[in-house]
Automatic annotation (TrEMBL):
Gene, per the UniProt record: dnajc10_1
GO molecular function: misfolded protein binding; oxidoreductase activity, acting on a sulfur group of donors, disulfide as acceptor; protein-disulfide reductase activity
GO cellular component, one term: endoplasmic reticulum lumen
Domain Thioredoxin intervals: 191-299, 403-525
UniProt-listed PANTHER family: DNAJ HOMOLOG SUBFAMILY C MEMBER 10
Alphabetized InterPro entries for the sequence: ER_disulfide_reductase, ERdj5_TRX_C, Thioredoxin-like_sf, Thioredoxin_CS, Thioredoxin_domain
Name under which the protein is recorded: DnaJ subfamily C member 10
Pfam families the record matches: Thioredoxin
GO BP term, pick one: IRE1-mediated unfolded protein response
Source organism: Liparis tanakae
């Protein structure tokens, strides 16, 4: 309990003659009442921990305060309080209005919460006659519908059980149903998120079976925990893709026939409808995973290979061209886990290594002919066109995108060079080339992680900037004279039209090859006119 109480930050206000009336008036003006516990020598008042707990439970519904009647005796008398007691003062209430103040006869926080909730104004009752007009003319409305009295209205919305729904202000057909816990803060959180998001609860009459605009549809069952976990991720993704793609959810426990039409056999199943094209989502149940999948649909990073295209593109590859190929089966669990990482790796290797995949369930005899015996089988077909069948297999334990990328890049000829103290002085400090250097230590984990990133950088800048690596364990004095205090450290040594450099170079605070390349490219643009003028002067 003590641990949980640390996270309750709601204010409990001490009321006294100098602030009580202004505090009450301000709360009333905001539509909030006051729950006040009066503490006297006799009777009972709420202890500090209970006050804090109740304040957290009723946050946003009423203000919570306490009054010390031993020091504010006259003030308590004005509230007609002579012994310890707790009372609820709703907005507009007055001691002169009989029954407007609720006097509580309990010290239990749950009982106080229930009594306060029951005493709050009831929700506005909506009926089939006023439902549509009320939604059309209210910016924000909290109401309730009696589905026994207005069964036709609820049936038209396919609502067959008590639920909470948020209507998005676009008519009675654009709404989203809450499938989380029926707890106040869960419902409030859902309402806030749903209004900002662009997710619609789908039914047969608004299902996007023949729509031209792209739709992402989540087929789910409310009893399925992974389905409920995916729903907030869909809301996040819908905000990111607003205007580009519509999002909807279909409850397969209600719409059995529609789910059967699309052969939905597991929950959740997420499908993207784009005109005549239908793509089932394969990836992690997260907003980032969904965004990456859609990005790949728009601009595929992995080429889907069949026997014909494999023979043409992989076996018939040009000299120096390298292919990474994933042989997989859709029913294979590890294969499914690999899919988003394989796509991510393909984007990381863009422009350096071509990436493809072969469905061995669809092309079983072909995969057998290629000697594929287990899934996933990951192969790298090297750049020797005279040996088209030559490949190396990935045998690592980790199948994340960075591990796979490091393995693939390790097969490429190095684009960076190792520097010794002598070559550092002659080539970098006294040479006539721009240099970017990676100062590292062999035992350093982040250095090992950065190594393939630096090779990518070396290839991106090839022809404009030379790339070198300095082993600071072997060449401690060189690194010390350069002012290196942490590993890895990236430094840029521009050629300034003279044969002398400062040992320290220019520090670059990034380990992302794209960011570093952009920084250096901008720096080269700044140096170009300056270097031209300097060379002209020297001539």
């Amino acid at each position: 309990m003590r641990f949980a109480m640390k996270f309750i930050t709601t204010t409990v206000t001490q009321l006294w003659q100098g602030n009580v009336f202004s505090e009450i008036e301000n709360a009333y003006a905001s539509g909030l009442g006051w729950l006040i516990t009066f503490c006297c020598d006799t009777g009972d008042c709420l202890e500090p921990r209970t006050r804090q707990k109740v304040a957290g439970m009723l946050d946003g519904l009423v203000k919570v305060g306490w009054m010390d009647c031993t020091s504010q005796e006259q003030l308590c008398d004005s509230f007609q309080v002579t012994s310890g007691v707790t009372a609820l003062f709703p907005p507009g209430s007055s001691l002169d209005l009989q029954g407007s103040v609720l006097w509580l006869n309990t010290l239990d926080s749950k009982e106080i919460y229930n009594e306060v909730i029951n005493h709050l104004p009831d929700l506005e009752q909506l009926t089939g006659d006023n439902f549509q007009s009320k939604l059309a003319h209210h910016r924000w409305l909290v109401g309730r519908v009696d589905c026994i009295a207005d069964s036709k209205l609820c049936q038209s919305l396919y609502i067959h059980a008590p639920c909470v729904a948020v209507f998005k202000g676009l008519g009675i057909h654009d709404f989203e149903i809450h499938h989380g816990k029926d707890v106040l803060y869960n419902i409030v959180g859902f309402a806030r998120d749903s209004v900002r998001a662009h997710v619609t609860t789908l039914r047969p009459d608004n299902f996007p079976s023949d729509r031209k605009e792209p739709w992402l549809v989540d087929f789910f069952a409310p009893w399925c925990p992974p389905c409920r976990a995916l729903l907030p991720e869909l809301r996040k993704a819908s905000i990111q893709l607003a205007g580009q793609m519509k999002f909807g959810t279909l409850d397969c426990t209600i719409h059995h026939n529609l789910c059967s039409t699309y052969k939905i056999q597991a929950y959740p199943t997420t499908v993207i409808f784009n005109g005549s094209s239908v793509h089932e989502y394969e990836g992690q149940h997260s907003a980032d995973g969904i965004l990456e999948f859609i990005q790949d649909l728009v601009s595929p990073s992995v080429m889907i290979l069949d026997p014909s295209s494999f023979s043409e593109k992989v076996k018939g590859r040009a000299e120096g061209q390298i292919w990474a190929v994933d042989f997989y089966a859709p029913w294979c669990g590890p294969c499914q886990a690999l899919i988003p990482e394989w796509r991510r790796m393909a984007r990381l290797l863009s422009g350096q290594i071509l990436v493809g995949s072969v469905d061995c369930q669809q092309h079983q005899s072909f995969c057998q002919g290629q000697g594929v015996r287990s899934y996933p089988e990951i192969r790298l077909y090297l750049g020797n066109a005279r040996q088209p069948e030559r490949y190396t297999s990935y045998n690592g334990w980790n199948r994340d995108s960075h591990s796979l990328r490091s393995w693939a890049l390790s097969s490429l000829p190095r684009a960076s060079v190792d520097l010794t103290p002598e070559s550092f002085r002659s080539l970098v400090l006294s040479g006539q080339d721009h240099w970017v250097l990676d100062f590292y230590a062999p035992w350093c984990g982040p250095c090992q992680h950065f190594a393939p990133e630096f090779e990518v950088l070396a290839r991106v800048l090839k022809g404009k900037v030379r790339a070198g690596k300095v082993d600071c364990q072997a060449h401690h004095q060189t690194c010390q004279s350069a002012g290196i205090t942490a590993y890895p450290t990236v430094r840029f040594y521009p050629y300034l039209g003279t044969r002398r450099y400062e040992n320290s170079g220019e520090h670059i605070n990034s380990r992302d090859s794209n960011v570093i390349a952009d920084i250096i490219t901008q720096r080269l643009q700044q140096l170009s006119p300056r270097l031209h003028n300097k060379l002209k002067t020297e001539l």
